[in-house]
Amino acid sequence: MPGEPETVRAVMRDGTVLCADVRRPRGGGPWPVLLARTPYGRRDPGVLARLDPAAALRRGFLVVVQDVRGRGDSGGVWEPLVHEREDGHDTVRWAARLPGSDERVAMYGPSYLGHTQWAAIAAGPPELAAAVPEFTWADPRDGLVARGGAAERGLLAQWTLGLGQEVLSRRHAADPVERARALRELDRARDGLAAGGWEPTVLRSLPLPARPGGPPLPCVPADHTGLAVPTLTVAGWYDAFLQGSLDNHLAARAAGVTAALVVGPWTHDDRTGRFPARDFGPAAGEAALAGGPSLRERTLEWLASVLARPSTVASEEGRAAALVFFMGADEWRRLDAWPPPAVPTALYLRAGGGLTAGAPDAGEPGASFRHDPADPVPTRGGPLLLTAGYPAGPADQREVEARRDVLVHTGGPLAAPLEVAGRVRATLFAAAEAGPADWVVRLCDVAPDGTSRVLTDGVLRVRPEGGHGARELDVDLWSTAHVFRRGHRVRLHVAASSHPRWDVAGPPGARTVFRDAACPSRLVLPVTAGAPRTVTA
Fold first, then answer.
1. CA angle 329-253-150, nearest 5°?
2. Do 18 and 71 contact (CB within 8 A), yes or no?
3. Which tens digit of pLDDT belongs to each residue from 182-237?
4. What Cα–Cα distance (Å) separates residue 261 from each residue in 246, 318, 320, 346?
5. C-alpha to C-alpha distance for 117 and 115, rounded to whole angstroms
6. 371 contacts: CB under 8 Å, gap ≥ 6
7. What's the pTM?
8. pLDDT at 535
9. Of 120, 139, 415, 518, which shows the fewest CB atoms inside 10 Å?
């Protein structure tokens, strides 16, 4: 029957068989294929809720949802990231030849499903005509397995354990006793995350990306040379893969093909724009994006329009397709391009905890704190992906700021709104008593009532190089689009840890940040001119 899933098998180049559900619209076709490749189960309710095959069928797509290698009913062994380029290429070519296909294939889906799209694009199957990668990384070493040299311990632990049941069940299928024992250990490890057990022994037996002795980590999206597939990238300001999504979009745009972008005030798993202590408004959510059609309806409309054009070369409409939510102003804006024109503007860390446009004087004292790896600074919000006890989003940082091992620098109340949009960076002149040392930097918006909400953050791990003098360090805080309102203040944190998000580095010891004329530590914001732009209602 139309719309009902039919299980179909595809044979990869090495003989491995992958299983997919194929759904066909009503009518005789032919139809373009809309393909998603997932490690989470092709019939998982959460996956299907995100993909919404029924909506795609109504728009005239033949929908294919496939279990990736080693997952669900597909054959082979699960190794994260390793096989997606070749399997993606082979699957696209197979899908284009399905009965009812018009031999054009588009791809869609979030997170790992987004990665499978970039892997397939890099492989270059000729039938791949468009893609909608959502909430996914570019370089896995910048947000997936590591950030600034620090391991993404919390993200990898919860993700790998979450996928572990199927791995262990397959591995011990012939030994029910061992299978039961392994699954009990896995359950204890999952439960232990809430109690702070972020390095359970069972992780060593699971396919953790970039593990010692494991397969080399592919870095598929780093090379966009020859990219010829139109893309619509979807990202969230509080997603763990925010910058990777933006980097992918910029690379696609630079390749000269149609490259559209949507960025909302969203986390990896929540696209409502509504948080317990911060509501960005009803138009912020994906259900009625910018007060109009839903995000999924917009992506399907974009796919239909791209497939209707005979060329992959970007039209003027395609080039002017960045729909971005500006926090603070709490409004959607359609930009000519991301990022918009901006002026890098320095705010300097000053003695006494100030943050000023004026550079520091000679002899201004630095600030020191003591790092204790046994008592790390806790993770509170931001662009992350952890367990339910550590939600992403614009969390109030006052509890963190009260700690003695967090340096806080705050600007004065703003006399006029300050709009920033683009990449945020910090330059620290700093020294560590012992290494390796992490430098965690966080940007916050402080409201008149004292609430201090995180906007974005970053980390840089520094190895000892001999001597204990100041070293100039550049910390990447990724990107944001935010308006600091009149009367609000800009705040910067500096710490040595963020647990359990990143693994804790280094022995106990002093950390010093210098802030004088010779060592002007500073925050650099991309300040826009604040000129009126199209506000999408």
1. 70
2. no
3. 999 999 999 999 888 999 999 999 998 888 888 887 765 545 666 789 999 999 99
4. 8, 10, 9, 28
5. 5
6. 405, 432, 437, 496, 497, 506, 508, 509, 510, 511
7. 0.95
8. 46
9. 415
Instruction: Determine the residue type at 35.
Output: L
DSSP 470-515: -EEEEEEEEEEEEEEPTT-EEEEEEES--BTTS---S-SEEEEEEB
The sheet carrying 62-67 orders its strands as: 6-11, 17-23, 62-67, 31-38, 101-110, 128-134, 231-238, 259-267, 322-326, 331-335, 534-535
Q: Per-residue pLDDT tens for 118-142?
A: 999 999 999 999 999 999 999 999 9
Residue pair 27/1 in contact by the 8 Å Cβ criterion: no
DSSP secondary structure of 405-428: T-EEEEPPPPSS-EEEEEEEEEEE
Structure token digits, residue 173: 């299928």
Residue 323 is given by DSSP the state: E
Tokens of 384: 């992350």
User: What are the two backbone dihedrals, phi and then psi, of residue 352, each rounded to the nearest 5 degrees?
Assistant: 90, 0
Provide the b/e sequence for 100-121 (b: ≥16 CB within 10 Å).
ebbebbbbbbbbbbbbbbbbbb
Tokens for 14?
């090495």
User: Tokens 């010779």 identify what position?
Assistant: 518
Q: How far is residue 461's CA from residue 504's CA, in Å, rounded to a whole number?
A: 10
